[in-house]
Amino acid sequence: MRRRMRLIRRRRERAGDGAPERLPNEPLYRGVYLLPNLITTCGLLAGFYSIIATVDGAFEMAAIAIMVAGVFDGLDGRVARLTKSTSRFGVEYDSLADLIAFGVAPGVLAYKWALEPWGTWGWLAAALFVACGALRLARFNVQAEAEVASGDGDGFIGLPIPAAAATVASTVLVYYFLGGEGATHKHIILLVVIYALAGLMVSSISYVSPKGVRFNPRQPLWTLVALIVGLGLVIAQPQIIFFTAFLLYALSGPVAWILGRLGYRGYRERRRARVRADDSRNHPTGTRRGIRRIG
Asked: How distant, in Å, are the alpha carbons of 19, 53, 74 from that of 88?
């Protein structure tokens, strides 16, 4: 098989057609894994239904469909790893499904729900969200290959596109949960939110990955009590809990970056203070002044 693919590669290089090569690791004629790709398809269909619901004016159902797509997106990868059915085809298919469910669907929802009165600025914001989501997925695929090769991959670079889509969808859900009537500032707020989310997706800010969190099977009793209370809150007020959770996650990256920069600046100032203190002990004041005059 390898010899055959080397011959095909040589023929393409001689022809100079410039066509992208399909790596021979997973020949498509051998078939694809059904279960993880079927789950990915469910997420894709949920995203497509969100677009249809948005066009029909059912914004709340459209937001729920995006959240459902997020559930399927979290399941397909785990099912593939548990059943040892990961494949290059599944990775590429998952990226295309994510672009529809978490890029196009929330972009259309945001435009029709709140950005349409802005005219050009409104559809530009929605288009920027979709474009940045596509760039985020492309960068994630490239980084995932590098992380697999290096054995590292405990975090995300940039806000993940499912989290950005969930932030938009949960904003719509909490709006209707709180009444959804009267004069609101949703047009201004969502315009700012969309631009901010688009920038965070293509930024170099680090975010925590759930896969990088390690849990000990044995935990204190209060941990179980806290989980039970949290589950009760999710069941009682899911709109508020989801909105708060995704908003805090989106803000966690910039906050951690700012705190890190302040901590690094404080470290540099403390280091300079130690250098000055060591210099003052090693050189008397008169000697230091004499050196400065000579210099």
From this structure: 19, 32, 18
- Please, what is the angle between helix 120-150 and helix 161-177, to 10°? 140
Q: Would you list the domain boundaries of the chain?
A: 26-215
CATH number listed for the domain at residues 26-215: 1.20.120.1760
Q: How far apart (Å, rounded) are the C-alpha atoms in residues 112 and 106?
A: 10
In this prediction the pTM is: 0.76
Q: Mean pLDDT: which of 29-38, 83-92, 104-113 is highest?
A: 104-113
CA dihedral 135, 137, 138, 143 (to 10 degrees): 120
pLDDT tens digits for range 202-249? 998 989 877 666 667 777 888 888 888 888 888 888 888 899 999 999
Task: Give the residue among 101, 183, 91 at the shortest CA–CA distance from 144.
Answer: 91
Residues 232-255 as b or e (16 or more Cβ within 10 Å = b): eeeeeeebbbbbebbbebbeebee
Residue carrying structure tokens 């066509």: 19
Retrieve residue 80's tokens.
């593939």
